[in-house]
Amino acid sequence: MTFLCVPIMVDSPAQAVADAIRAQTAGADLVEFRIDRFTQDPQQVAALVAESPLPCIVTCRPTWEGGEFDGEDQWRVAVLEHAALGTCKPAYLDLELAAWQRSANLRQKVALVVDHADQVRREVTSGLILSSHDFQGRPVDLHRRLMAMAETPACRVVKLAWRARSIRDNIEAFEILLRRLKPTIALCMGEEGLASRVLAGKFGALLTFAALDADKGTAPGQPTVAELRGLYRWDRITPQTRVFGVIGHPVGHSKSPLIHNAGFDATGFDGVYLPMPIAPAYEAFKASVFSWLDLPELHFQGASVTIPHKENLLRFVREQGGVIEPLAEVIGAANTLHRRPDGSLYASNTDYGAALDAVCDSLGIDRSGLRGRRVAVLGAGGAARAVVAGFACHGAHVTIHNRTEAKARQIAESLAGPVADAGGSVAVASLDDLAFSAAEVFINVTPLGMYPQVEQTPLPQPPAGWGPGTVVFDTIYNPQQTRLLREAAEAGCHTVSGLEMFVRQAAAQFALWTGLEAPMATFREVLIRDAGA
Ligand code: NAP
Q: Looking at CB atoms within 10 Å, which of 99, 174, 238, 422 has the fewest?
């Protein structure tokens, strides 16, 4: 079993015990009392251990290892000795490897109060965690440190924590856990290290740390207990759990973890979905994704891919000899990676299909009914390109209206071949021409109207032809009801929110990865709840 441990920075016994009770209620198995600021009275530390509602680790972290204690080692060791010899004993004492290696006197004192094979004092029960932290990056001598701890007879638990330089560092943490000689904690700090914390149980770590509240973490990147247990479903993760994620830069704002994890929960699928921040360069994408695919025990099965990596995904899958969905190839960007059961890679684009189906549902037609329809697309960025290709390659006549007309022309020219084959067309017109547009479907694929600029609209003058036969689709999903959609509804048009596109592109990914029908109602529900939170 991998414990969920809540670190508690101790300022007073009353506050620490109250926090430990909250941790227990929130589902923690263990607490770590960080007594860095609370070393004046060793008796009080022993009393705190006695009052703890959960088994505890006692740690007094010095400033030179990222903590707050700036006194003498002799004093903090005396406090730890006192705690370990009290009537109620901590489950573990934590001491830095560097301190252990520096002083024979300290080693002798600590070895006398912790449980190990050579211990002669039967009343001693606390285990020793030897720990090593690096808040800057991966220490060059990581494996030497690991072996030094593992080979120390008095050490019951090895703990290594370092700041992840990229999501690849999680893989090294997992490999350390897989090859452990003793109970081990291997965690990466920072946003890139989240996987090592969430998946600690999958790889048999002794514990993971989670903060009681967002402002109470003791290391960068620590999730809260609520996030770990609620969003990432900590209690359901097993060694077989399949892993998915959203790759982008940045990805912190992404709602995809919220909906996919809720989807796994609703369908009982054994999966977990994580943010996977990867720096923009192709080499970073390739090295990171490859390292996740390369560890069989991780069961990394697929990812949503967003800006700036949609083109990188195509290149990567092509280079790996995988298969690319033909229309994704035409669009020049993919948003979905799937490792198929035979191990081959597949890249597809679920954005265009989501946009098509959202509009088709509103018109009460299927995709074949798009043939010959007149569609006005506002914008000529990456998402607009997918939307234009999707509609035009289903036989629609699309006109692109963009601030920079050259970009619209570039899309029209590059799609000309496949669009002609499908019986569709792509034309270019100015934004001013929208006022006279005879389109039946208007699609906004610019950020105009997106939170926080909610009073903006790409169409300050609604076109004269708007009415009950018109569909207006805004790809923006925050807010759900944009000014554009409000004014379109007032003019009697059918309106479609970007939430529908977001839910449908995710649903197609979910179905591809799991083989199950996506719980779209759950997806909508969690997004709406999140928007209202
Ligand atoms: P992008 O590549 O940055 O393209 C943005 C487009 O908007 C460009 O054509 C740009 O015109 C135009 N634009 C930006 N600011 C403008 C302004 N002030 N006035 C007029 N035009 C302006 O972005 P993208 O990736 O295509 O995404 C565009 C939007 O699509 C996003 O904001 C998002 O809301 C939406 N989207 C939704 C979903 C979904 O699932 N619902 C998925 C993807 C995208 P220029 O060419 O002149 O710069």
A: 238
Mean pLDDT, residues 410-422 taken together: 96
Is the confidence at residue 533, as pLDDT, over 80?
no
Q: Does residue 441 contact residue 374 with C-beta atoms inside 8 Å?
A: yes
User: Each residue of 363-381: b (16+ CB within 10 Å) or e?
Assistant: beeebeebeebebbbbbbe
Nearest atom, ligand 1, residue 447 CA: 32
Q: How many Cα atoms within 13 Å fall on the side-chain side of residue 200? A: 29
Q: What's the pLDDT score for residue 215?
A: 87
Mutation to probe ligand 1, out of 445, 451, 503 (largest number of atoms < 8 A from CB): 445
Write down the mean pLDDT value for the chain.
97
Query: 301 CB less than 6 Å from ligand 1?
Result: no
- pLDDT above 90: residue 142: yes
User: Residue 122 above 90 pLDDT?
Assistant: no
pTM of the entire predicted model? 0.95
Contact 90, 83 (CB under 8 A): yes
- What is the SS3 assignment for 106? helix
For residue 404, which atom of ligand 1 is closest to its CA? 47
Residue among 254, 401, 403 to mutate when testing ligand 1 (max atoms within 8 A of CB) = 403
Share of the chain above pLDDT 90, in %: 96
Nearest to 187 by CA among 170, 203, 204: 170
48 and 34 Cβ atoms separated by less than 8 Å: no
Q: How far is the first Cα of the chain from the last one, in angstroms, to the nearest whole number?
A: 34
Ligand 1 binding pocket mutation candidate from 335, 446, 499 (most atoms within 8 A of CB): 446
CA angle 227, 230, 233 (to 5 degrees): 105
For ligand 1, atom 23, the nearest C-alpha belongs to 381
User: Smallest Cα–Cα separation from 53: which of 99, 98, 18, 8?
Assistant: 18
Active site residues: 133, 159, 310, 351
Neighbours of 64 (CB within 10 A): 11
Partnered with residue 96 across adjacent β-strands are 131
Tell me the pLDDT tens digit for each residue of 301-359: 999 999 999 999 999 999 999 999 999 999 999 999 999 999 999 999 999 999 999 99
Cβ of 490: how many Cβ atoms within 10 Å? 10
Write down the pLDDT at residue 148.
98
Distance 444 CA to ligand 1 centre (A): 8
Say yes or no: CB of residue 391 within 6 Å of ligand 1.
no
Mean pLDDT calculated for residue range 198-207: 98
- Helix/strand/coil percent split, the chain, to 5: 40, 20, 40
Gap from CA of 327 to ligand 1 centroid (Å): 21
Whole-number Å distance, alpha carbon 447 to ligand 1 midpoint, is: 5
CB-based contact 45:69 (threshold 8 Å) = no
pLDDT in tens, 348-392: 999 999 999 999 999 999 999 999 999 999 999 999 999 999 999
Residues 497 and 520: beta-carbon distance below 8 Å: no
